[in-house]
Design a protein that fits this description.
It is a single chain. This protein is about 30% helix and about 35% strand. By secondary structure, the protein is of the alpha+beta class. The strands form two sheets. Strands 5, 6, 7, 8, 9, 10, 11, 12, 13, 14 and 15 form an eleven-stranded antiparallel beta sheet that branches. A four-stranded parallel beta sheet has the order 2-1-3-4, sandwiched between helices. A hairpin with a 2-residue loop joins strand 8 (about 175-180) and strand 9 (about 185-195).
Length: about 290
């Protein structure tokens, strides 16, 4: 039987908390399943930051129509940015701390099931976003979430437990800034999120009604809340009901310009960014990425 198409599989060896022997077992499973489904697969391991982008760009140039990525939201971002506005579709095998995009899309969290789903999936168009010139596919933002992303990046060990501990410690040292959106003062905000998908990851829904294929982003403002409301805010975040909070406000946008009184500490899909100046632009790119679902 002739192969259906060529297939590139990109693996980030640093993503996730699985021991090396299990990761090798998963690599073998991918090779076997690709062969079973009559794909001619090349499996490549990333060696440095940005490597996934280079590999995915080469796949597009070679006419490869499916690229599977095994990693977290950062690795998925690196890969997907090279596939935007091309005929090459992205398959996701979630292995990160949050897996926000995969969870929003309803993909299996079990790696083997995710591999089978991606190899047999159909390409579906979704939107993507840009924060200045930084692409994102799940969320990008300023404020507390960006502060946590910067603190989390400093930790020697990744994983959910580290993220929870980092978030808790960051809450007590974080100092909110004031923002202006499209020339209108928004005041001091705890966080300001541009959501393509509805959640940060781990089913923490910042934009409960976000539609990843509606040609718009959900711009979500979380105002300053008293300390005694932390538990309630957290409960609503994970119960997909934060939009009912008096401290939350949101609207759908295609583009917005944001100014801040402090340094523009930001993130795109959880990866920390320090933007120049005190102004940035966020925009949507409708129907710009094919994802295997």
């Amino acid at each position: 039987m002739m192969p259906k198409t060529d297939l590139l599989v990109i693996i980030n060896p640093l993503s996730g908390t699985l021991p090396p022997v299990q990761k090798e077992g998963l690599r073998a499973f991918i090779a076997a399943e690709a062969d079973r489904q009559a794909y001619q697969a090349e499996i490549v391991t990333t060696a440095y930051a940005g490597h996934a982008t280079q590999l995915a760009a080469q796949a597009v140039q070679q006419g490869i129509r499916r690229v599977l990525v095994m990693g977290g939201d950062g690795t998925i971002n690196e890969t997907a940015r090279a596939l935007r506005r091309t005929a090459t579709a992205l398959g996701i095998v979630p292995m990160g701390s949050g897996n926000g995009l995969a969870r929003h899309l309803g993909l299996p969290m079990n790696p083997q099931k995710a591999v089978v789903r991606a190899l047999g999936g159909k390409p579906v168009l979704i939107d993507s976003g840009e924060l200045n010139d930084h692409p994102f596919f799940c969320t990008a933002g300023l404020g507390f979430e960006a502060y946590v992303a910067h603190e989390f990046a400093k930790q020697p060990v990744r994983g959910l437990q580290t993220y929870i501990r980092t978030t808790y410690q960051a809450f007590w040292s974080y100092k909110p800034a004031e923002y202006t959106i499209d020339g209108e003062k928004a005041g001091a905000l705890f966080s300001l999120t541009a959501a393509n998908a509805g959640q940060f990851g781990n089913n923490a829904w910042i934009a409960p009604t976000a539609n990843i294929a509606d040609g718009k982003l959900d711009l979500c403002q979380l105002g300053i809340f008293p300390t005694h409301m932390v538990s309630m805010i957290g409960w609503q975040l994970f119960r997909k009901s934060l939009n009912r909070s008096a401290y939350w406000a949101g609207r759908r946008i295609q583009e917005a310009t944001i100014q801040s009184t402090g340094p523009l500490l930001a993130h795109a899909d959880g990866e920390p960014l320090l933007l120049p100046g005190n102004s940035c632009t966020v925009r949507v790119l409708p129907g710009s990425l094919l994802v295997l679902l």
